[in-house]
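Inverse folding, one chain.
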């Protein structure tokens, strides 16, 4: 399964979090946890005296690296493996 990746998650005062920023193949089993982490990182950047534009850019830079690290570390054939198991089971049931 190929999930298109975004190179930018922030535009001016708007930031994407969770799957809106980094949807990925379910076989990686990390989308929900990454989304929760996004919130924690963003919260850490948004101190009362922070400049919003800078804070959002820092959030984006941090999280883009994490997202790429996880996707690169995931087995690239994981989704195909799940699909093959499902196909084999479907064939047995016919
Ligand atoms: C089969 C499968 C297995 C998975 N297994 C794992 C796992 O083991 N571990 C893991 O970490 N992750 C897993 N994931 C990924 C995880 O489910 C997602 O990464 C996570 O749910 C994303 O959360 P989110 O809040 O960003 O987006 P979503 O869960 O998609 O939430 C977005 C919400 O916004 C709502 N919405 C959309 N448009 C609008 C609108 N215009 N107005 C108002 N509301 C709107 C939607 O109805 C939805 O409720 C799996 C995913 C799949 C499909």
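Residues assigned per position:
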């Amino acid at each position: 399964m190929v999930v298109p990746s975004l190179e930018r998650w922030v535009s001016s005062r708007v930031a994407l979090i969770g799957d809106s920023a980094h949807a990925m193949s379910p076989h990686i089993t990390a989308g929900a946890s990454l989304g929760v982490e996004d919130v924690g990182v963003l919260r850490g950047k948004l101190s009362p005296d922070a400049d919003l534009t800078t804070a959002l850019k820092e959030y984006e830079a941090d999280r883009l690296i994490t997202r790429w690290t996880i996707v690169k570390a995931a087995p690239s054939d994981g989704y195909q493996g799940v699909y093959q198991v499902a196909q084999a089971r479907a064939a047995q049931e016919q």
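The chain is about 60% helix and 5% strand. The chain has a mean pLDDT of 86.
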